[in-house]
Design a protein that fits this description.
Layout (H helix, E strand, L loop, with lengths): L17 E4 L4 E4 L2 E2 H7 L2 H10 L5 H13 L5 H12 L4 H15 L8 H26 L13 H10 L5 H14 L6 H10 L5 H12 L7 H12 L2 H13 L17 H16 L4 H17 L5 H11 L7 H22 L25
Antiparallel strand pairs: 1-2, 2-3
Bound molecules: coenzyme A (COA).
The site of coenzyme A (COA) has 17 residues, from helix 15.
Length: about 375
Amino acid sequence: MAVSAGLADVVVGPTTISDVNGRLGQLFYAGYDIRDLARESSFEEVVWLLWHGELPSASELGWFRSELASHRKLPDQTAAMIDRLAGMNAAPMPMLRVATSLLQIEDPKAVNVAEGPERLASLGLVARFPTLVARYQRRRQGQGPVEPPLGANQAEAYLTMLHGTRPDELDRQALDVLLILLADHEFNASTFTARVIAATLADVYSAVDGAIAALSGPLHGGANEQVMRMLEQIGSLGNAKEYVERQLAEKQKIMGFGHRVYKAEDPRATILRQVARELGERKHDTQWFDVATKVEETVWNAKQLYPNVDFYSAPIMHQLGIPTDLFTPTFAVSRIAGWTAHVLEQHANNRLIRPRGDYVGPAPRPYVPLSAR
Ligand code: COA
């Protein structure tokens, strides 16, 4: 049996949702280049595209936006649980898992994996993820939650519920682009986790719970938080080169660099570098962007590694006033779109995912009774 460590380059199954061309550094959602989507579309359009395979018409988009808005409010028990978890100072990613499980418990149709109920559950998850994270943040700061604003898109609603004021156009657009770029990425670790769970015919909430757990690790979505902690540890431009060289000499990984699939620059990083620069310049605060570019230059000179999507996500989220430990939950606020799209695709044409292990342990041997050990 052929074995590929970490399933590298193993093709698991067909998908029509997104396609990564690692050699050329390209990413497409249902055939649309991510660069066009980031420039022209909105997160809502992208969610629709991932779920339906086509861009929405104007009336479909209008309907979808109002559906999302009307599902943003949290059910009572979930809201109360968020308040308790905030009071306990629970870590944000476990909070998101608990909240997702509770949404499942509060949804009477949760176990139904038929397409209709599952689309509705998916809509609720996409709509409510920003509300969950924002409410948790407000409560742990001792502030009252902010009601989901009417007429706001996802990016605007999230920032409003987080900060208590409507964001300016620059911040709203920057977050919208970030949400578009993080929405899906083929069979990445968390999405694959979601598909494995869905393939047992478990429901979408269960699949999303597992996906959140997989996203939290520092080799996956947890990297964005680690990038910001690294930038803060470096502190100023003058320390960046020495810091990176020392880390590499000690065989430490630099968070936000390298990728399993991309052998050219991650196209999302190219766009996010530009967004981070613009945000910094327009806010007259390029400290973290400057440190980041120096880190990038040093890593390139030492190891010829490209930054990945998480690297410039960090200074962007920081500029948007998102606390560092909410960077990965904010990734989830976007990736919930891809996870749910993949669960729907898996359930539409399901087969249990059950690979084989390459057993390298002892050969069969006789049992040794306890008295003889
Ligand atoms: N910093 C330093 N060296 C790195 C590196 C990084 N961020 N990423 C990869 N490398 C090096 C490895 O040390 C290894 O070198 P070696 O062959 O001399 O031992 C080589 O590049 C291959 O790395 P490996 O970890 O085997 O690649 P992978 O495909 O298994 O892992 C990642 C991919 C993304 C997990 C890996 O690049 C990484 O850990 N990056 C940092 C975490 C991160 O940013 N994750 C978010 C991904 S979007």
